[in-house]
Amino acid sequence: MFAVWKDNIEDVAELTYYALFALQHRGQQAAGIAVSDGTNIEYHKRLGLIDRVFDGSRPLPGGRMAIGHVLYTSTERTRSVNAQPLVIHCKRGKIAIAASGRITNADALRESLAQNGAVFSTSVDAEIIANLIAREPSLSLEQAVYQAATQMQGSYAAAVMSSDTLIVMRDSLGNQPLVLGKLPGGYAVASESCVFESIGAELIRDVAPGEILVFSPDGMHSLQLPKRPSALCIFEFVYFARVDSVIDSLSVYRARWEAGRRLSQVMPVEADLICGVPDSALAAAMGYAEGAGIPYGDCLAKNRYIGRTFIQPEQSRRVKDVRIKLSPLRSIVKDKRIVLVDDSIVRGTTSAKLVDMLRNAGAREVHLRISSPEVRFCCPLGVDTHNPAQLLASTHTLEQMCMLFNADTLAFLPPDALYEAVNDAGLDFCSGCFSGNYPD
Amino acid sequence: MFAVWKDNIEDVAELTYYALFALQHRGQQAAGIAVSDGTNIEYHKRLGLIDRVFDGSRPLPGGRMAIGHVLYTSTERTRSVNAQPLVIHCKRGKIAIAASGRITNADALRESLAQNGAVFSTSVDAEIIANLIAREPSLSLEQAVYQAATQMQGSYAAAVMSSDTLIVMRDSLGNQPLVLGKLPGGYAVASESCVFESIGAELIRDVAPGEILVFSPDGMHSLQLPKRPSALCIFEFVYFARVDSVIDSLSVYRARWEAGRRLSQVMPVEADLICGVPDSALAAAMGYAEGAGIPYGDCLAKNRYIGRTFIQPEQSRRVKDVRIKLSPLRSIVKDKRIVLVDDSIVRGTTSAKLVDMLRNAGAREVHLRISSPEVRFCCPLGVDTHNPAQLLASTHTLEQMCMLFNADTLAFLPPDALYEAVNDAGLDFCSGCFSGNYPD
Amino acid sequence: MFAVWKDNIEDVAELTYYALFALQHRGQQAAGIAVSDGTNIEYHKRLGLIDRVFDGSRPLPGGRMAIGHVLYTSTERTRSVNAQPLVIHCKRGKIAIAASGRITNADALRESLAQNGAVFSTSVDAEIIANLIAREPSLSLEQAVYQAATQMQGSYAAAVMSSDTLIVMRDSLGNQPLVLGKLPGGYAVASESCVFESIGAELIRDVAPGEILVFSPDGMHSLQLPKRPSALCIFEFVYFARVDSVIDSLSVYRARWEAGRRLSQVMPVEADLICGVPDSALAAAMGYAEGAGIPYGDCLAKNRYIGRTFIQPEQSRRVKDVRIKLSPLRSIVKDKRIVLVDDSIVRGTTSAKLVDMLRNAGAREVHLRISSPEVRFCCPLGVDTHNPAQLLASTHTLEQMCMLFNADTLAFLPPDALYEAVNDAGLDFCSGCFSGNYPD
Amino acid sequence: MFAVWKDNIEDVAELTYYALFALQHRGQQAAGIAVSDGTNIEYHKRLGLIDRVFDGSRPLPGGRMAIGHVLYTSTERTRSVNAQPLVIHCKRGKIAIAASGRITNADALRESLAQNGAVFSTSVDAEIIANLIAREPSLSLEQAVYQAATQMQGSYAAAVMSSDTLIVMRDSLGNQPLVLGKLPGGYAVASESCVFESIGAELIRDVAPGEILVFSPDGMHSLQLPKRPSALCIFEFVYFARVDSVIDSLSVYRARWEAGRRLSQVMPVEADLICGVPDSALAAAMGYAEGAGIPYGDCLAKNRYIGRTFIQPEQSRRVKDVRIKLSPLRSIVKDKRIVLVDDSIVRGTTSAKLVDMLRNAGAREVHLRISSPEVRFCCPLGVDTHNPAQLLASTHTLEQMCMLFNADTLAFLPPDALYEAVNDAGLDFCSGCFSGNYPD
N or C: which end of chain D has fewer CB within 10 A? Predict the structure, then answer.
């Protein structure tokens, strides 16, 4: 999710395009941008990656504000009606809404709204927000958003834009990341700070958990939902976020590197080479290598053209094969004792193939090291609701997993070591996927 | 608009595809089909002509019911969100809605619904119907549709489909046409009877003005809105409908032919050849020829590839030129006194070009005969709300128009003659575009 | 095929686009335009209809000359490499070539060229012309074209464009039509004169059989291949050409009308209404009605959106059904004795369906009248080489066909009557499809 | 370039698809595959990346052989006619040809062929090969290929496939890489060995410089062009090839790593962190870090969605900005003395931006180390013929470049050190881009 506010009419759509390009890893199903020039809202959105959605054929006008969104959703919800921002008409006029994350009481809210006659055209949370706001035509927009937010539980980052006002908000758990940046002549708000490097913005601070930031011709001000214990998603540091992002003042790269370093201390092994699974485990592998005093190197090459395709049904088979994505560096691997660092084990389908790949390439030993604890619990705050039975660590012991992976040894980073790696300042995280303790 | 009800699961989507293909002339901006198998509703819709929307890449499952729609709208409303059927979720579950025509109190209804918190994602009337239905969660679906219909004014034909019930309705003026047909093992309802030839259905009867037809597992039954004076749109016979359709038991072809014949009686002229402007005025020209006892023939050839393109903005210029669409049959036209019959004069931009085209091809005289009266008033029931100043006959006298067109003579069919041509049975029409008298 | 020559740089590509749009009926598989500004040749071509190929995304520069082509070919040859104009490099530099029709000794020429090392990238005749020209690097371009033409047999109209010279030619039989027109500041050459109406050109004359027209900075001049007996394809008048075209000074519309009139004389029948199969048999039906003194009218309505689709394989089934294309005018047909005029019977698959359609719509009698003789022989000059067994009249007697069609009576126009209808001036035609006598 | 030979009919097209996916970095303009089942050749090719060209809509049949190609060419030659494999007809029947690299005497060969009447439809070298082969209809295919190869100079890897024979060849300089692999029931030949990991083939050996490998129903055999001094392109190791490839028995990864290590010895500098420019300089940076005994880490994050787009003209502006592609890891960079290793300096446009990016992110010092010598000479064997004036090192001294880049220090790897890094076995390279000495 991205939002921009400017003092003057500019090409805010292009700025948002760049921003969404930097956020593409957070959603590949659909993308969209809505722009307001202070009077009217124009938009364009479609299924597909950002560069396909904005291929130059549908230029957006200049504006003072814009919001943009990349959609991450399950396959069956990949329909064009779910592309965001939603642009709706209600008593207040035209409003654009974009929301990332997951409102956990969505079904109850939708049910209650429907009870009062609401009609839903999509299956996304942004439409619930739209209806909650529309139900309070007598309140100001910011008060209506506040009222709506008090009813929404879960993990979300959302933006609401009328023709003259821009409002962004972060869930009161602070589960989803959201950052505020300064631009020449304006402000930007983004799901991750990596965006700001792309658009030349300067990171000011994180939007606080439960904070509602209002940008209007009168300036910027802030409302605050009742305080709750902070519960930032620790998996942002493990896997979701880009390494160049900083969340709640914590560097993602640094956290991954440090997780790897600590892993080398608590789960050491004699080896010749420390390698990481590209790209998300490379920083952890570097930290492991540093901590272990063993050389770091690549043992797997990644095809740089993978992971980019807007996959057609008939193509799905093709990209399943891990060999298309990763291949071993035989001359490096041969006869070596290798530590392969991965960021996490969810289903575990890839790990077994990678160990085999290294063994076939001549590795003498392969030690698998995971820079996060065992994922044993399904996330009620996440978009993908896995069946717990699909989580390998929920049904297998360490020994069983090690055998399954055909690894010489297997070890996970203990939870405490991960918390310390991410944060030496005592911030509270949601680590329910490891512990089963999710915030209420 | 098209709807089909079957006793068993069949390929109702294909049937609907054929039906929409026969209705393509009623809307070229978007097309869509929703199918229910009795339990769930699936759909596909998109901007474009029907054969482009259903290009084989998105097959729909079999079903017991389906509704289909082709969208006719102004350019600025040509957005994918306006494609129909709308498929929405409300208290009653999933509902698909398609509506043609124009609800004249749409703004007031939308305002009133918004006042109560409604959110609109589109600018089409079907969404108003959706909200009116959703506001009455305690009523049965048919009662809710009835309630909604009592609030809707104007000209429309609509279909509402839940997973197990199909409801169609015609506005209480009977302004929009709507016919009921019998299929093997089921029923079909269509905006025009020409559809039935394509799909092998048999015309049973017209849906009555204000009639609400309900198809459910219990069979078909009918509700009736309070009776109002009938006011079928006479322009359906003049231009809108396909010649092979029969509306309220009146043949469109026969009406046009007869209009031409009567025109020859009241506005005769000495000539060598009677010609019509392809395609909508050919039947009238044949009638004129018959009435006048002068040979009928073609004087203009139409490029059969025109009018088919889903026009890209950059192409718009190309198809403006009437020479691309029509060309003169020089060998026929040369040295002849020609009566050129057209169906109506709205803006009059084409007529002048056609007269010139015939003169340049060597015609000795060109007499323009219009098989309908002068269009002087804008239609509040129609989708295109012309500015009255754009209606040539509202600002020009007959003599001025004749000079403008460079015709030797110009004559229109008097209103009474048109009514008699269309209908010898005393049915009441809306002919407000000629008289200014529109139904309340 | 179309070619234009201008004295100055203009938007010749747009002119050619319009011209090809008027020639679309001669080929729907692919389209292309090549433009020369006197120095360099640019082009664009692709599979598809002209308005899809030139959708605005690939604009061509201005030029002094252009050639354009629409491809008519069998399904298995519908490959993008066969789109024309071909633009090749040879000893003379860049040359663009477009050819319609069929070189009957293509295989022998290709074989002989291959014997000398030629490489063929396509399966179209234009590439043979390219190679024949390239083989004579010491000749001037016009002499090389002349040399090539002396070796080519069959039926063709072709254009060859170097950066500064434009050459067009018509086969020495005059089997393919080709006309020369005058434009402001230039000339145009087209397969049919209907093009000239679209682009505002004036028909000067037909290009003579075996004539090679050369346009260069020195002006226009003409070479003449050895004279052969003229053999214009009579099927151009029966079916191929557009009604508004004039070929070798003969009006196609007039020829069809007159064929119908003569048919009424030699094959009369008592009836209430004379109808034609849209669109190609309407003129003949009008002539029949005039000759018979029986009213002319429509009994079949054509869906104006058909025949326009660039058909995807998965769609082919859909458009096979004649009901999608044509539907009966029940109110007109009912209880009538109808004469249905068609232009020709090739395979005869459609005719039986149409007779049934009229019977089902209530026709009392249906008399089928064909405004051309029985097609009994396959055309060696045509693109589609039918299997003779597929030609209905080659394997069925008149009585058998009548029964097959379920018609009350069936009659064909005798060959002599057709020749007289087309031409009262004694021009010689190729009518081999009727007689089996093809030119050598 | 890729070719596969199988004993039985299999889905060789899918295998080739995977192979081309692994070779995508060698050409992004177009892709294609031709398949032979022993009797007939079918193919599909188009502009675009491999996964777009083969989107499932045009499946190829099974076969015993296939050849595949990805096109790397200049923008002005990005036309669909240049997509390969070429599939041509000549005296020998249907032949498919694919060629990578550059035939340096192409103009002279084309001129000479044109002198004898050849016609060229494309601007690619494969068509020259086609014509050379076609000129010798009396020779066997392998002899014709041999004859052709004796006339071709430069750098190429090519495949020629008739319906029953497959021939591959490597230029006699060995400038282009080409490797032979074993598949279950067959063989594969590829431009790079990285392909073999993707398709499960085993690397047997390099195809020798000047070797012509013939696969036929009689088995595999080899012809050898006259020996020339070996001149493998050293830039394959510097930049072109994938790190997981092995060329002439030399590991690309190892060569890059070793180049980095040697650079640390000859061009040392005091620093806190060694970083590489993603992705091509990471191995060299690791080697530098190891050699220098300074920690290796990331300082730049790469957007994994870049470099993948088939860029539309209107988008070109968007991806020019290096900030879209790379962003600094501020928390890592801050206050550090950084060595940034890049693989080479060609135009130098990116390097200056990266140094600035690191400085803005707080780096205290930025030392630029290039793991190859100064590129001073244009490559006559390469596809992109740079203007020498565009090569920064050809017009600037080391000091000037250092200032231009705003680096604290700048150093290049000396030529000798690069040769030793790549190869300790005395293989001869072409390193003309550094020395100006190109093979004749």
Answer: C
